[in-house]
């Protein structure tokens, strides 16, 4: 998504050294370095325990979509349920807006789940005998809001998620996608600070799934809502995530933007995970950019934005038949040419190989290149 620049760095959730261990005397596992270092099979045979979340630390920043991705059993649901203590953590700290979640009493926890961090589940959790409107109003009802006011508020949210006209239907009279919209509307109705999604779209057929993903993108763009989104689907993660935490065996193997995960995988596991991703659709032109070689090159050719994908730049370069300029607020940051863009598609563009290529050609390595001041040019043109 393009919204990273607008997300501030204030954390909504701040998680440090979090563990969730299932099994007998679970608490001894994080406390004992020898047990904590065992692999899943070793831990199970020594202790009978499973570390569903092992020593995980991250922040969820205000306004971002934070995706937790990983294969089945990697610990995604357990991790996200620990955030509001739907599952009780074994060790570590969790704060929401600086407040210690593990120190909250029952009343405070209830308020956290009702007002501050609402969960949207895969299986909707709708009440079958209630209408759409009353399902959406449910969260407001348990907050103690009066009937007229909550129905008015619910009607607004129902319209917002595209269910206008269906207010009086019951869940059984809706399609899967429509039911998921009701679930989403119910979470939104309480106007939570953060929305937590547990694989909400995995049961939907692909077209409806895409609709719902776009709904999430729209909500994020229009309302700047903070979201934590669990998925095992890489495409979904790349599409929705400002940042992605990739989990394996309870740990986070890499945390980064889609571009960082696809462009600089942390290890072979991540590399294998992202192998089939069309790189040009995820990596931005910054990956392929070099300083303009002349004032003329900085002043001519089609313009692209710094967050344009390589694929968009390829289109611009092909149409124009020339190098494209990367423009940010009228300033030329650098240029991209067809050869560098093709390198990205071919997977030859990671920092290591570019540095090696540059050294072979006797040119400065990328890190040094950034020191060079490219010729700048100002223009009023609108980049693609
Ligand atoms: N209540 C439990 N008791 C024992 N083990 C559990 C319990 N809940 C989860 N686990 C184990 O913890 C690990 C992580 O499970 P979790 O459900 O968090 O994974 P997930 O990534 O969300 O998987 P999925 O995508 O299949 O939902 C798994 O090995 C699972 O078997």
TrEMBL record:
The keyword Metal-binding does not apply. InterPro entries: AAA+_ATPase, ABC_osmolyte_uptake_ATP-bind, ABC_transporter-like_ATP-bd, ABC_transporter-like_CS, Gly-betaine_transp_ATP-bd, P-loop_NTPase. This is Glycine betaine/L-proline ABC transporter, ATP-binding protein. The lineage of its organism: Bacteria, Bacillati, Actinomycetota, Actinomycetes, Kitasatosporales. Residues 38-274 form the ABC transporter domain. Residues 354-366 have a biased composition (Low complexity). GO terms for cellular component: membrane. It comes from the Bacteria. One of its GO terms (biological process) is response to osmotic stress. Coiled coil: none annotated. Gene3D superfamilies: P-loop containing nucleotide triphosphate hydrolases. Residues 354-384 are annotated as: Disordered.
């Amino acid at each position: 998504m393009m919204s990273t620049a607008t997300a501030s760095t204030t954390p909504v959730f701040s998680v440090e050294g979090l563990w969730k261990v299932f099994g007998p005397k679970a608490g001894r596992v994080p406390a004992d370095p020898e047990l904590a270092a065992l692999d899943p099979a070793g831990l199970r045979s020594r202790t009978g325990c499973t570390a569903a979340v092992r020593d995980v630390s991250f922040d969820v920043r205000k306004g971002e979509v934070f995706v937790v991705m990983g294969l089945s059993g990697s610990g995604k649901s357990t991790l996200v349920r620990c955030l509001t203590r739907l599952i009780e953590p074994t060790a570590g700290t969790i704060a929401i807006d600086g407040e210690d979640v593990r120190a909250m009493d029952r009343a405070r926890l209830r308020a956290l789940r009702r007002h501050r961090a609402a969960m949207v589940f895969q299986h909707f959790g709708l009440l079958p005998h209630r209408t759409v409107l009353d399902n959406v109003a449910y969260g407001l009802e348990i907050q103690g809001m009066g009937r007229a006011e909550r129905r008015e508020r619910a009607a607004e949210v129902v319209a917002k998620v595209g269910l206008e006209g269906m207010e009086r239907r019951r869940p059984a009279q809706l399609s899967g996608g429509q039911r998921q919209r009701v679930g989403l509307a119910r979470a939104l109705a309480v106007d939570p600070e953060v929305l937590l999604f547990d694989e909400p779209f995995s049961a939907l057929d692909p077209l409806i799934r895409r609709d719902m993903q776009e709904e999430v993108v729209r909500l994020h763009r229009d309302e700047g809502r903070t979201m934590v989104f669990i998925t095992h689907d890489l495409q979904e993660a790349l599409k929705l995530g400002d940042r992605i935490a990739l989990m394996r065996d309870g740990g986070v193997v890499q945390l980064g933007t889609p571009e960082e995960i696809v462009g600089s995988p942390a290890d072979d596991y991540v590399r294998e995970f992202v192998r089939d991703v069309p790189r040009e659709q995820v990596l931005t032109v910054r990956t392929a950019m070099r300083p303009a070689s002349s004032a003329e090159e900085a002043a001519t050719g089609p313009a692209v934005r710094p967050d344009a994908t390589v694929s968009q730049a390829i289109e611009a370069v092909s149409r124009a038949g020339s190098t494209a300029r990367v423009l940010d607020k009228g300033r030329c940051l650098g240029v991209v040419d067809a050869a560098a863009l093709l390198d990205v598609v071919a997977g030859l563009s990671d920092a290591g190989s570019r540095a090696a290529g540059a050294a072979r050609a006797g040119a400065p390595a990328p890190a040094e290149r950034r020191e060079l001041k490219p010729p700048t040019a100002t223009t009023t043109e609108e980049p693609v």
